[in-house]
Amino acid sequence: MTALLTEKNGTARRSPAHGSPPSSPRRRPGRERAFDDVPRWQIYLPLGLYLLFTLIPFYWMLLFAVRPAGSTSLVPWPMTGAHFSKVWNERSFAVFFQNSMIVGVATLVATTLVALAGGYALARFDFRVKGAFMLALLCSQFIPGALMLVPLFEIFRNLQMINSLGSVVIAETVFQLPLSIILISGFIKNVPVSLEEAAWVDGCSRFTAFRTVVLPLLRPGLIAVGSFAFVHSWNHFLFALMFLSEQDKQTIPVGLNTLIGADSVDLGALAAGGVIAAVPVVIVFAFIQKWLITGFSAGAVKG
Prior knowledge:
Layout (H helix, E strand, L loop, with lengths): L4 E4 L2 E4 L26 H26 L15 H9 L2 H32 L5 H11 L8 H10 L6 H25 L3 H9 L4 H9 L4 H17 L2 H6 L8 H7 L8 H33 L4
Antiparallel strand pairs: 1-2
Helix pairs in contact: 1-12, 2-12, 3-6, 3-9, 4-6, 6-9, 6-12, 7-8, 9-12, 11-12
Family: Belongs to the binding-protein-dependent transport system permease family.
Protein name: Carbohydrate ABC transporter permease
InterPro entries: BP-dep_ABC_trans_perm, MetI-like
């Protein structure tokens, strides 16, 4: 059917034919440009500058770690492994690495298990002090760990846990739990209760339904919470310094501090120790980055 001519207020205008798509509205002057209209250099240039600013310290550390002592070259050639051999064998970094791994893995397991139980309780049960408990968890994040050193030291001294890796694991777990419980609780809320109810109808107990139905769906959240606990305990300096005084019980952050002398600093050994400390963290994030992003974003949907 041909277009109809209509006349209104003395002005003729053509009506669109039946079935023809409406014309898209014109962009108003000054309207914000779409992302596709932005030149690529305006995106890549700031990102490149930020990446350069981030990577330069790592390159500088790697340069000092593999460059021979006394060299001033900005290119790591010829390379040497003398600094790594020195800190690993002479500075007891093999023992520090083992202790840090024990603390990190133990903190990961303890934090994940306790946060899983606490998060499930907050997500699935209603009790009188639930709001106050959630508020206490949030407020605990504003308390610096340094304020708790003296009471924690007295508690561990009375329990005869000073110079024990268990004291560091307990302290790290306690300070990781509030955020971990909140994240796990938010993630469990995203799992429909009807899935558990269907398992209950089939004869499963609450624990069996949780283990077989809910727990497999919590993998991103558990990976996020566990990796965050591991990295924090691996890098934390204060608790290990306060509760561990014997050299064979110290962790990598405290070991790095011993490389800084009163009058001089062995930059090569210090850089090599920093590389050794960074490698496990880089490997962890390289393998779990997609799970980490999914877990934190899903756990923050509901509170």
